[in-house]
Amino acid sequence: MDLKHTRPAVTELRLSAFKSHRSAVFPLAPLTLFTGASGSGKSSALQAYEALARLGAGEELGAVFGDPAGCVPEWAGADEQGRRGFRIGCTADGPAGPVRLDLAVQAQPALRIVGERLTAGGELLLSTALRDPARRTVQAAWHTAGSVPVTRAPLPDDRLGTALLPLRVAGKTVGQLKVLAAAEQMVVALRTVFACDPQPQWMRDPSVVTDDRLRRGCDNLAAVLHRTRSECGDGHRQLAAAARAGCSGPVEELAAEQLTDGTVRMVLGRGRGTVAPAGGLGEGELRYLALALVMLTGPGVLAAGAAGEVPSTMQSLTVLADGFDRCLDGRQIRELTSLAAAVCARGRVRLVGTALDAGWARGAEGVAVVDLSA
Question: Which residues of 167-204 are buried (b: 16+ CB within 10 A; e: fewer)?
Fold first, then answer.
C-alpha cells in the first residue's frame, strides 16, 4: 500500500477574499515555500491555513480570529446591512479523493460563519447558510441518499460544520457514509498541523525537564532534546549530524545537560571533553537547530494535535514555518532545505513555509516555490 496516497493532506489553499488576496488558488506540494517582497501576502497565506487547521480541530471562531476585521480585504465594501467578511478554503486529498471545503466568514458587525460548503466528486455534501441573523445558528443541509435525501438541522455559527458532522451523521446509508468519509478526511488533513516560529531569545534559557513537548516558539528546546536523546536514538543522531553541518566550529554531540536546580540546558560537545552551552550560539544557529528538530520528530514530540481515532500510519504532520530562511546563512539554508525535502519525500511530514527570497530553492529537488511577486 502506498501510504503517501492514503494519508489525508491539504493539497490546495484558496483565498477568495482574505487580506491582500483575491481569487487566489495555491497548489501545495509536500514542501512548498511562499516567496515575495514584504507585503506580498506570504504570511497571510500561512495564517489562513492555520486558521482552517484550528477550526478543523474544533476551536471556536472567536479564538481563531482575534482580529477578524483585519482579515477583510480593503477593497471589500459593506452590503446594505453593513456586513463585511472574508472567504477562505482548501482541498484535501486522500482515500475519499479530492474533498473541497469553502468557508464564508462575516467579520462585521458580528463574527460568524455565514456559509460553508463541503464538496467531493463534484457533489455538494454539506452546505450551510445564515437564515436568521437574530439567531446564533446557521441552517445546515447534508446529503444522506436514504429515504430522506437531505437532512436539515441548525448548527452553531461559531464552529466549522464539517468538524461537527462525525457527531451528527449516523453512517447508515451509502450517502451518509460518503459524507462521513469526506468530512473525516478533511478534518484529519487539517488537525495535525504544527505552526513553528523559533524565538532564539527564549531558547537560550534552561527549560524545566518535564516541559518536553516542543512549543511554537521552541523556547523549551532543551527539555525536548533531553527527551528525544533517550527515546529516539536515530532521530537524535540525525539531528547531531545536522548540527555538525549547520553550526560553526566542531560539533561532536548535541545534548541536554541537567542543572542542579532540576532544569536542563542545551549544550554542544566540541571535542576533547569541551562542552559549550547553546546560549552562546547565534540566532541563525538556534533557529536552524529548532527547525531541524521539528522535521525529524512528530506529533508525539511537538505540541501538535493528532486524530486519535485514526492510526498514526494514516496521518501526516504539516509544519507551518513563517520565515523559514530568517537569520540563516547560505550554508544553513541549503542544509535545512535538503533535510526538509528528504523528510517530506517520505510522506510522513509536509512543510509550508515563507521565505523573503527563495532563489536558492528554485530548481531544488522536491521544493515547490510560489512567487507572490509575480
Answer: ebbeeebebbebbbbbbbbbbbbbbbbbbbbbbbeebb
pLDDT digits (tens, 9 = 90+) for 292-322: 999 998 778 887 755 555 555 556 899 999 9
DSSP state for residue 259 in the 8-state scheme: P
pLDDT band at 185 (very low <50, low <70, confident <90, very high): very high
Q: Which of 285, 264, 147 is nearest to 206 (CA)?
A: 264
Q: What average pLDDT does this structure show over 64-90?
A: 93
> pTM of the prediction?
0.93
Report the alpha-carbon distance of residue 298 to residue 252 in Å, rounded.
24
| Whether the Cβ atoms of residue 112 and residue 105 lie closer than 8 Å to each other | yes
- C-alpha of 80 from chain center: 36
Q: In which band, very low, low, confident or very high, does the pLDDT at 374 lie, cut at 50, 70 and 90?
A: low
Using the CB atoms, write b or e for 242-268: b if 16+ within 10 Å: bbbbbbeeebeebbbbeeeeebbbbbb
For the packed helices 161-168 and 174-191, what is the interaxial angle rounded to 10 degrees? 130
Q: What is the pLDDT of residue 2?
A: 46
φ, ψ at 10 (rounded to 5°): -75, 120
In the chain, alpha helices (H)? 42-56, 61-64, 161-168, 174-191, 200-203, 221-231, 233-246, 283-296, 330-345
Does residue 3 have a pLDDT over 50? no
- Given a contact cutoff of 8 angstroms between Cβ atoms, the answer to whether 265 and 256 are in contact is yes
- Residue (of 317, 339, 344, 312) closest to 328 by Cα position: 339
Tell me the mean pLDDT in the region 127-142: 93
CA 331 to chain centre: 26
Q: Which of the four pLDDT bands, split at 50, 70 and 90, describes residue 357?
A: confident
**In the structure grid, which three cell numbers stand for residue 219, read together?**
523556547
Closest Cα to residue 103, out of 154, 148, 143, 65?
65
Whether the upstream peptide bond of residue 109 has omega within 30° of 0, thus cis, is yes
User: Buried b / exposed e across 216-236, counting CB within 10 Å, b at 16+?
Assistant: ebbbbbbbbbbbbbeebeebb
DSSP for 155-172 reads EETTS-HHHHHHHH----
